[in-house]
Write a structure and sequence with these properties.
Helices cover 48% and strands 0% of the residues. It has helices at residues 6-21, 26-33, 37-44, 52-61, 93-106. The N and C termini lie far apart (40 Å).
Length: 116
Amino acid sequence: MAYTHPINVDFGRIVARRRDELGLTQSELAARSNLSRASIASIENGRQNVHLYHLYDLASALELRRVTDLLPPRPGPARGAIAVTASHGEVSEEETASVLAAIRHLVPEADGLEAE
């Protein structure tokens, strides 16, 4: 059996709970978020890492105003530096601010983090 990171399991539970609150099936969420139903199932079971751009799609599909509403607390202390690289086109100032807020949410000691 493959290892599943605890943060992926917690994230998957949050996605599944919100999907249930909205009365959506996995197939309906998949259609809304441009992911496959199998990906939604894997995410909800903590077996799939989620790309940052999919995080935005999932938050929108789950009718959340903030991406950070999907994020579980980071387990344990932060270990080392954090680097965020945009690999899917340009990142707007609003998206950058949202990513920084998510990092600050997950890593309290990153409170002074600024975009470069």
